[in-house]
Each structure stands twice: as structure tokens, then as C-alpha cells.
Amino acid sequence: MHARAKLSSTYDRLRRAISIQYLLAFLPAITLGAYWLGGEGALVAVALILPALLSISEGFSTPTLHTPHDGITRLPLRSAVENALDRSLDAHSRSGLTTASIQLDLDDFHAIAERYDHSAAEQILLQASDRLLGVLRSNDVMARLDGGRFAIAVTPARRADLETLIQMGGRIQESVAVPFLVGNTNIYLTASVGFCLSSRLATQTGAAMLDAAECALQEAKLNGPGGVRAYSPEMKRKIRSQSALQEEVRAALETGEIQPWFQPQISTHTGEVTGFEALARWQHPTRGIINPSDFLPAIEQAGLSERLSEVILFHSLSALKQWDKTDFYLPSVGVNFSSDELRNPKLVEKIQWELDRFDIAAGRLNIEILESVVSGTDDDTIARNIKGLSQLGCGIDLDDFGTGHAAIANIRRFSVSRIKVDRSFVTKIDLDPEQNRMVSAILTMAERLELDTLAEGVESVGEHATLSQLGCGHVQGFGIGRPMPFSETVTWIEKHRTKIVQTPTISRKQG
Ligand code: C2E
Ligand code: CA
Ligand code: CA
């Protein structure tokens, strides 16, 4: 099973058995024996040659009895890689060989360790270290750092260049991409990889090289999951400012600076407001309102996706409660869930608890899931969660439909209740026959599958009218209403109501 890990631990035990202390303890007996058997010549030979041999062999060996090991994987720790790099860099200055250091991180390892039990995380680490050792050369030194992070000292070679390292990174990622079987659940992971070539390093030490590889890893994670990056000196400055932003969003989530704004969704049949989509906004004390595209990446990198959806869900359900106190009925609120959050095995329980706490029927909460998440997943947990939420009674909105190639089988399997046609198909639908044909095809498919429909990004009266004629169920977009803070929603609804009373209804597609 963990053949290489076992082999290395057997090797360790053997080394321990013949370690220098034991041999030194027997040295007097060995020399005496040599004298009895071979006379003075043998005595001199053993007394001189044996210590010399021992010192040479200890000098070449890598981790010794005193090298601490990681308790789970039995791999050496960071210092072993640092020492190996120091030795390689030293040799490189004399021999012209180049070396490199790699750091890799199992993306989402922390989230998985939190969600499953302790032994699941250990099993993943063991399986991962075994697979990684399988793609390295026997002289490469690998250590486990904290969490799901590993560091590698690459054996010096004539051609340790960018291309070779990218290939190595690719092999590492492939080995991690095979699902990890824990209990009877397949857990899917990706790995981010950062590396540093000795030629890119200003300070030629093992410690500096490990730091540089770590810097490249952080950059890979920013572009991840599953990114690969080579170290360059400019990375350091950039990473420093990104870490500062992560700390800022963490605080903003707790102080209430990040809250949802609400964008109305209306029925094309009645013109009434049928729901609001909750869209995260950061009310920054000095920079004003910040849109999600500028802070969602920092939230994901800081591992705060779960916290964000807790905050947005809380405010969305509170908003429903507030609307219920007015004299109009607002059927639903839509909340966006990232794939990170959908991997939480306790998600259904958590949402059920929140709904109970607010005493709100599950049918009034629409869970918005990107089409790319549904199409790209064979992750059992995501599939179970979507199904569980639908069984709970929540609506499942397939977001950005048309951009993610979801198979019809998956739409059925995940019990999707509504398709949100992506803005890219809706723009100029009243003027562009090609757009019109595409949306007609999507709407026909939805009708056959008995799915409700909503068109996103409706900006003009012409687009609104065409969608209504084509039989699209709901519309949402700047042309109807922009996202607004909760405090403005009630006035907006009142104004909208007076408008629909005055507007004649648009005739709909027949049949
Ligand atoms: P989305 O879920 O597709 O949300 C619709 C986006 O389109 C929103 O951008 C909205 O302001 C914008 N939009 C609406 N109508 C129009 C229109 O007529 N024209 C144009 N040009 N744009 C329109 P926003 O608020 O910047 O959000 C961007 C994305 O960020 C969202 O796309 C969603 O994927 C993500 N997001 C927002 N809030 C959350 C959240 O709480 N959690 C998660 N996981 N993602 C969120
Ligand atoms: Ca959405
Ligand atoms: Ca969308």
C-alpha cells in the first residue's frame, strides 16, 4: 500500500541498528578480536580504518537518527530539506550543477480536515506522501511541513531548468488528482505547486530557497486551485499586499462591513417581484462600496468562503423576516454558494438549522449554484449536498447557465428547479437573431424538463419584452433594478408596484 513509506521506515530502523554509537561501543571488542585473529597488523588496520569508514559514511548520509520525523507520514521535517539544499547549493557552486526546491500544498486540506474526522486527514496525508514519493527520484529529499504542505529538495542535475520543473509540477499534480478513498467516500483534491530554481536566487542558501519556493506557492494558490508558479523576486512584494487584504476581509466579515445588497427578480407573467438575489458588497470605510470581484478572491484564499455564506445567509433570512412585516409578500431570496461551501458535509444540517431559527419555509430560499460547479463535479459531497438541499425544499437555481456545459443528466440528478440564463445570451436579444435563437433553444429545453427560467442581466425594455414574449419566467437586471442595500428595498418595491399598475401587459408567445 504505502510501499515507499514502509521501505523508508525499514531503512531508518536498519540505519538505527547499525548507527555509529552502537558500532563505537563495540570498537574495543572488534579491535581485540582482530588482534587475536590477525595479530598486530590486523589490530592497526581495524583501529584506523573502521573509524575512518564510519566517519565517511555518516558524513554522506542525509537524515540521521537525530533528524526528527513527521509522526504521520514518517517523512523528515523542513530542516532536512533545508540542509539538503545547502549541500546542493554548495556542490553546485563547484560542479556547475543546478538545483531547485519545490513546495506544494493540497488545496482545501484545512477545510477537509475540519469537515471530516482526524483520521480522514491522516489517511489523506499518508496516501499523498506515498504518491509524491512515487513521482520523485530516490535522491530527492521530501519533508512534510504543516497541514497539507510538503517541501522537496531536488537532486542537483545538469538540466534542472524551468521546463523540467514545470513537468515535475505536472506529475505531482496528476498524482494528487486521483481521488483519495477515505472510508467509502472519494475525496477529490488538487495541489498547488511553487518552485524556485537556484539560478533565480539572490542569496544562495537552503533557507532562502525554501522561502522563495513558499512565496511561489502562495502565488500559485492565488491563481489556483491547482496552480503552478516559478519564483521571481517581484513576487515577494505582491504577496505582502495580498496577505494584508486577506486580513482586512477577515475583519470586515466580522465587523459587518460585508453585507448583501439585494437585486430584484420579477415575474414576466404578473410583473410582481418574486424574489431578490443577495449579492455581497463591502462597505469600506475609506474606499466606499467594493464589488465582489475585488474581494471574493481574497475571501477564497483566506479560506473564508464558509464564513461569507454564513453572513450573507443570515442577512438574507433577516431581510425576509423584515419584508414579512410589510403589507406585501416577497416569495424568495437567492443566495450564491461557492463550490468551497458546497463541499461542506454539514451544509444541509446548517441551512436547516438557520431556516428553523428564523422560522422560514425552505421553499423561500433559493440556492444559486454555478453551472460550472454542477457540470465539473463528480465530487460525492457536492452532489449529496445539492440533492439534500433540494429535498429540504430549497429552490436550486442553476446560475450562469449556458457558460458551463452542464449535462442534462446532471440537471436532473441535482434536482435543479430553475435555470438562470447567463447575461451573455441575453444582451441585445431584441436586436440579434442569433441571441434570440440561443435563448429560445434554452427556454424550450427548460420547458420540456419542466424547469422554471430566469434571464439575468436584462438592461433594456426591448430585452425585457423579447424575453417575456419568448416565455422566459422571470427577469433580473439593471433595466429592472440595480442591487441595493436592504434599507432601499421597501421603497423600491412600492414604486415598482405603482409602475406595474400603469403598464399594459406584453403579449406572450403562444403554445
Ligand atoms: P452572479 O451571481 O452572476 O450575479 C449577477 C452579477 O451581475 C452581479 O454582479 C450583478 O450586480 C450583475 N448584474 C445584474 N444585473 C446586471 C445587468 O443588467 N448588467 C450587468 N452588466 N450586470 C448585472 P456582482 O454583484 O458584482 O457579483 C458578481 C459575482 O460575484 C456574482 O455573479 C456571484 O457569482 C459572485 N457573488 C456575489 N455575491 C456572492 C456571495 O455572497 N457569495 C458568493 N459565493 N458569490 C457571490
Ligand atoms: Ca448568482
Ligand atoms: Ca449569474
- The rounded Rg comes to 31 Å
Tally of strands: 16
Order of the strands making up the biggest sheet? 8-9-11-12-13-14-15-16
Question: Total domains, how many?
Answer: 3
Low-confidence stretches: 1-22, 55-65
Largest sheet: 8 strands, mixed, barrel
**General form:** elongated
CATH class of the largest domain: Alpha Beta
Mean pLDDT: 86
Portion in helices: 40-55%
Number of helices: 19
CATH superfamily of the largest domain: EAL domain
Any overview of this molecule?
- This protein is an alpha/beta fold.
- It folds into three domains: about 25-55, no CATH class; about 60-240, Alpha-Beta Plaits (2-Layer Sandwich); about 245-500, EAL domain (TIM Barrel, Alpha-Beta Barrel), CATH 3.20.20.450.
- The chain is about 55% helix and about 20% strand.
- The protein contains 19 helices and 16 strands.
- It has helices at about 5-15, 20-60, 80-95, 110-115, 120-135, 160-175, 205-220, 235-255, 290-300, 305-325, 340, 345-360, 370-375, 380-390, 410-415, 425, 435-450, 460-470, 485-500; strands at about 100-105, 140-145, 150-155, 180, 185, 190-195, 230, 260-265, 275-285, 290, 330-335, 365-370, 395-400, 420, 450-455, 475.
- It has an eight-stranded mixed beta barrel with strand order 8-9-11-12-13-14-15-16, surrounded by six helices. A five-stranded mixed sheet has the order 2-3-1-6-7, sandwiched between helices. A two-stranded antiparallel ribbon has the order 4-5.
- Helix 5 (about 120-135) packs antiparallel against helix 6 (about 160-175) and helix 12 runs parallel beside helix 14.
- Ligand C2E binds near residues 336, 400 and 483.
